[in-house]
């Protein structure tokens, strides 16, 4: 009886801790409430199975505990039970996978009116690139990366000249505007993660990965690296600031383009190479 009660208390305590726990998701700030719904469905299904299994164990411990004169009956197989378990498990797994597949299809289907921006991760900082007045990002290549071209933009690409480059600074986004986030890494695996956005993706050297979001409320949100990337992984932080349309464009007008930054960087590089003379 004591063991059976302990098992039931474990099941009840686990459910109550999940319901009343102070640790939960941050308030969502994008369109990806679907991800929260999918995780909740998974919690309900796995929670039900967990309680059912623990309750069955408690029943078996109590019902079939040792008594004098009672002998165990060896039953090597039970086809009816095996069928029920197989069908029930299959239905449960399908119920968890189906919502995830629907959400994944939405996750990789970028709206046609989404603006492309680029995030580059490196040990241990974030850099950002936004399209200029032409509305298009120029091409880039890691082989172009240098002290005066930290994001490796193609100097011969006219679309790259007006790109806004933000090195180790804050990223601003416009509320209500869909954004496709292109992700690159210079050195090791990184992961651009804003908890309130719910969307994230690994950044793999040599690849361009992506996700998309539509910010639904203004505010300032922390950028974290969700992939262990070295000794200073914990310091790889930045801010994403979601603005109203007017504030966003006012901020954008104050930023330097690649063409404006290149001459200044070239002067700094030449001065450094000449020993400061």
Provide a compact summary of the structure.
The chain is α+β, with helices and mostly antiparallel strands and 277 residues long.
Structure description:
The chain is of the alpha+beta class and 277 residues long. Helices cover 39% and strands 20% of the residues. It contains six helices and ten strands, in the order H-H-H-E-E-H-E-E-E-E-E-E-E-E-H-H. The protein has helices at residues 2-20, 33-63, 79-108, 158-161, 245-253, 258-273; strands spanning 115-122, 125-130, 164-167, 171-174, 179-185, 190-193, 200-203, 209-213, 219-225, 238-243. The strands form two sheets. It has a five-stranded mixed sheet with strand order 3-2-1-5-8, with no helix packed on it. A five-stranded mixed sheet has the order 4-10-9-6-7. The longest helix is centred in the first third of the chain and has 31 residues, at 33-63. The protein is elongated and about 95 Å long.
Main beta sheet? 5 strands, mixed
The strand count comes to 10
Poorly predicted regions are 266-274
N-to-C span: 87 Å
- Average pLDDT, all residues: 85
User: Taking strands numbered 1, 2, ... along the chain, how are they ordered across the largest sheet?
Assistant: 3-2-1-5-8
DSSP strand content: 15-25%
Q: How many helical stretches?
A: 6
Helix content: 25-40%
Secondary structure category = alpha+beta
Assign an overall shape: elongated
User: Which sequence of SSEs, written as H and E, runs from N to C?
Assistant: HHHEEHEEEEEEEEHH
CA radius of gyration: 27 Å
């Amino acid at each position: 009886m004591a063991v059976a009660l302990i098992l039931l208390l474990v099941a009840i305590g686990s459910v109550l801790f999940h319901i009343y726990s102070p640790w939960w998701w941050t308030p969502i700030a994008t369109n990806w409430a679907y991800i929260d719904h999918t995780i909740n469905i998974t919690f309900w299904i796995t929670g039900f199975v967990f309680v059912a299994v623990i309750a069955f164990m408690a029943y078996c411990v109590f019902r079939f505990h040792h008594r004098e004169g009672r002998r165990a009956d060896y039953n090597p197989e039970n086809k009816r039970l095996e069928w029920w378990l197989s069908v029930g498990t299959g239905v449960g797994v399908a119920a968890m996978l189906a919502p995830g597949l629907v959400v994944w299809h939405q996750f990789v289907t970028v709206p046609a009116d989404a603006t492309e921006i680029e995030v580059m991760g490196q040990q241990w900082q974030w850099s950002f690139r936004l399209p200029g007045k032409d509305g298009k990002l120029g091409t880039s290549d890691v082989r172009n990366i240098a002290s005066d071209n930290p994001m490796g933009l193609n100097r011969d690409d006219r679309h790259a000249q007006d790109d806004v480059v933000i090195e180790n600074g804050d990223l601003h986004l416009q509320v209500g505007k869909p954004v496709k986030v292109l992700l690159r890494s210079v050195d090791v695996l990184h992961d651009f993660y804003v908890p309130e956005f719910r969307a994230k993706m690994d950044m793999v050297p040599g690849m361009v990965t992506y996700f998309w979001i539509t910010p639904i409320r203004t505010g300032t949100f922390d950028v974290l690296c969700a992939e262990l990337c070295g000794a200073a992984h914990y310091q790889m932080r930045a801010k994403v600031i979601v603005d109203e349309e007017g504030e966003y464009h006012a901020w954008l007008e104050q930023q330097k383009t690649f063409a404006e930054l290149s001459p200044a960087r070239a002067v700094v590089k030449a001065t450094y190479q000449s020993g400061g003379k």
